[in-house]
Amino acid sequence: MKDIVIVSPHQDDEIISCFEIIKTAPKNVFIVYNPTGEEIRKQEALKLKSEFSQIKSQFFMNEIPAALLDTNNTLYFPCKDDTHPAHIQAYFKGYDLWLNHGMDVVFYSTEMNVHYKHEVKDWIEKRKLLNHIYSSQSRLWEMEAKYYLFEARIKYMK
């Protein structure tokens, strides 16, 4: 079984897009966040580890730690359809790792305006978790249920 590495440009992207992946992960989950951002959201993100025993480490850095760039791991990156500049930048890193380095990469969307989205089975649990961990951002999903009702992931084929 593979370890999972989630590249999350913003603290909360990991739950918005990969809640089901984290929840059902049979092995270790590592999350790599962009180091910039509000300090409160960084502190909120660290609470996530206490919610899931699968989360082994959370990193705040610009690059994925070399030890996690293992072909035995599955990497999750934002997709090209997300419009935020930090997501687009992360997408190109993921695309390069998939295309040129043979890594197992899955792309996710935080915007949910893509044709490959699906309904989250445990959306009530996901919403509660978002409110518990990222209370500073709760107005976002109060106004847009898509953040807890749906997830979208796609894997490119060569």
Strand residues, percent: 15-25%
Oligomer: single chain
What series of H and E elements makes up the topology? EHEHHEEHEEHHHE
CATH architecture: 3-Layer(aba) Sandwich
* Amount of helix: 25-40%
The global form is: globular
Low-confidence stretches: none
**Structural class of the helix and strand makeup?**
alpha/beta
Distance between the amino and carboxyl termini: 22 Å
| CATH topology annotation | Rossmann fold
Strand order of the largest sheet: 3-2-1-4-5-7-6
Structure summary, number of beta strands: 7
How many domains?
1
User: Mean pLDDT, as a whole number?
Assistant: 95
Number of helices: 7
CATH H-level superfamily: LmbE-like
Largest sheet: 7 strands, mixed
Radius of gyration: 14 Å
CATH class bucket: Alpha Beta
Describe this structure in words.
This protein has one domain (4-154): Rossmann fold, CATH 3.40.50.10320. The protein has a seven-stranded mixed beta sheet with strand order 3-2-1-4-5-7-6, with helices on both faces. The longest helix is centred in the middle third of the chain and has 17 residues, at 85-101. Helix 1 (13-24) links the parallel strand 1 and strand 2. 39% of the residues lie in helices and 22% in strands. The protein has helices at residues 13-24, 39-46, 48-51, 85-101, 123-133, 138-143, 146-149; strands at residues 4-8, 29-33, 55-60, 74-78, 104-109, 117-119, 150-154. The protein is of the alpha/beta class and 158 residues long. The model has no long low-confidence stretch (mean pLDDT 95). It starts with a strand and ends with a strand. It contains seven helices and seven strands.
